[in-house]
Amino acid sequence: MKALRILLADDSPSIGEMICGQLRSNGHQVRFVTSGEAAVAAFREETPELVLMDIEMPGIGGLEAIRRIRRIPTQTWVPVIIVTGHHDEAHLLDGFMAGADDYLHKPVQPLLLDLRIQAMIRIVASQRSATATVDQLIEGVIRIDRAGRITAFNKAAEGIFGYTAREVLGENVKMLMPSPHREAHDTYIGDYLATGERRIIGIGREVQGQRKNGELFPMHLGVSEVETPDEQFFVGIVHDLSEENALRAALSENRHFLADVIENSPDATYVKDRAGRYLLVNRAQEEVTGLPRAATLGRTDAELFPAEMAEAYRQVDLAVMETGHAIKAEESLRNERGETFFLSVKFPTRSTEGDITGICGISTDITQIKHYQKELERLSQYDELTGLCNRRHFMGLARHELGRSQRYGGKLSLLMVDIDHFKRVNDSHGHRTGDLVLAAVSEQIRKALRDADIAGRLGGEEFAVMLPETGLGGAILVAERLRQQIATQAIDIGDGQTLQCTLSIGVACLDDATIDLEKLLHRADTALYSAKNGGRNKVVSYAADRPA
C-alpha cells in the first residue's frame, strides 16, 4: 500500500516529533506544524491525504483550524483525526461537529495510531483509484454542485481549458463559458432545479467553451445528473472539437485536398451519391465497419448493414439532400465487434453548377462518452450500495403507480421497512459491516418481490416497497415472509463471522381514491413506528384510529 502524505499539527514539539518518527518509520511523508494557523496555511499550499490535529493549541486552536480546512475546496475527501487529552463526550462531539472523522487520545499509543492510519489508508486508496481512473480518460470530466461550483476537474479538463484543478475548485463553472451563457448559467441551474425541465441535462450537444487565455473553442458537452443518498451533483463530459471542426472547415475551403484529408482523418469519413452508393471511404471507415474498401464502394447501406440501421442512415442522408444543409446526428453500428456510437456530421456535396450530388459524412466515435452517460444515468436513479431505486427515482415510480391505481380502481399497498438496531451494528462492527447488512437485506427484498413491484432505499436503513394490484392481506403476507426470511438468515460479515438482524415493517393500503403518495407513506411510516414501539421484529398494518 502506498504511503500517505500526512499533515500533523501539535503545539508540543516533543509529542509531534514522537508521532512524526513513528509515521516516517512506516514510510509516510509527514509535514509537522505547531499551530492551527500554520495547519490551514500548509493545507492550502499542498493538499495532504490525512490530517492529524491537536485540539488544544495557541491561536485559533485545532477546532477552528478544522473548520477552516473543511471550507477549502478539494477534489477528494481528506480524513481528519483529532488528537486530544480530553476523554469527555462533549469535547469529542465538538471535534466531530467541526469536521473531524476520528480521534486519538493522548498519550498516543503506537498500536492505536498504526491501526487508525491503516484504516485511513483503505479510504485513501479507494479515492486514489477513483481519481486515477477519471484522470486517465481522454475526455474532460467536470463535477459541479447544485450551486454551480466546481468540485472535481480531471487532467484532461486541465489540458482542454488551461486551468489547473487548484485554480478552479470552488469556483463557479460559468468561468469556463463565454458570454451570454456565462451570465445566464446560474439561471439555467435554478430553473432546472425548480421545474425539472431539461435544456442540456442528459442531452449531448456542441457548445462553445472558453480557455484560461480567453480563447473560445467548440466542444461536445454531455451533462448528467447524479443523485446519491448524501448529495446531488452534475457531471459534464467534455470533448474538444477544435481539431474535428478545423478539419471540416478545411474540407469546405479546399476541395482539391479532400481525398488526402479524408484518407488520413482519424474519424470515419465517406462520400455517397444521391442513390446512397458509396463513392469514397477512408481507412477509419474500413476499420470501424470491418469491411474492406473494395467490398463497400458502389454499394448502398442496405446491401452492407442490417435493414434497421441502413434505413436510419438513409433517412439522415435524404434529409441532408432535401434541406441542402449540414445535419448532426447520433448513429450506431452493430456488428460482431459489438455496438459503436457515432456523432455524425453530414453535409451535401455539390457539382460545379451548385447541384446537390450526394452527401459527405464524418463520424466521430463517441461510444465511450455514451457508456459514461449510461452509467451516470444509472447512478442518478439507483442506490450504488444496494442496487435498489434511490429516493428520488422511487418517489417518481411510486407516484406514477399510485396514479394508475387510482385511475383504474386497482389495489395498491405500501411497505415501510426498517432494520432494527442498525446503529448498534455500525457502532459495534463498523460501517463496512453495516454496508454488508444493507446489501443482504436489499437482496432479500428483491427476491421477495415480483417484477411489477417497486423497491427503494429512502435513506440510511429505511426502505420502501410498493406492491401494485395487492390488497392489505396480500401485502401483510409479503411483509411477514420478508421479516421471517431476514430473522432466520445468518449474514456473512467476513472472517468466518455471521450476524443476524430483524426488520420492523409498516403496511398501508390504498383505501381512499383521493389519497396522495405522501399521505400513504405517512400511514405506512406510522405503522412502522407502531411495530418498533411494540418490540420490533414485527409487521403492523395502519389503523386510522392509531395515533400518528
According to CATH, the fold-level topology of the largest domain is Alpha-Beta Plaits
Whole-Å distance between the termini?
53 Å
Instruction: Give the number of helices.
Output: 20
Helix content: 40-55%
Largest sheet: 5 strands, parallel
What is the CATH superfamily of the largest domain?
Reverse transcriptase/Diguanylate cyclase domain
Stretches with pLDDT under 50, minimum 5 residues: none
- The structure class reads alpha+beta
Mean pLDDT across residues: 87
Explain this structure.
- The protein folds into four domains: 5-129, Rossmann fold; 140-240, PAS domain (Beta-Lactamase, 2-Layer Sandwich); 256-368, PAS domain (Beta-Lactamase, 2-Layer Sandwich), CATH 3.30.450.20; 382-541, Reverse transcriptase/Diguanylate cyclase domain (Alpha-Beta Plaits), CATH 3.30.70.
- Helix 18 crosses helix 19.
- It starts with a strand and ends in a 7-residue tail after the last strand.
- The model has no long low-confidence stretch (mean pLDDT 87).
- It has a five-stranded parallel beta sheet with strand order 2-1-3-4-5, sandwiched between helices. It has a five-stranded antiparallel beta sheet with strand order 7-6-10-9-8.
- The protein has 20 helices and 22 strands.
- By secondary structure, it is α+β, with helices and mostly antiparallel strands.
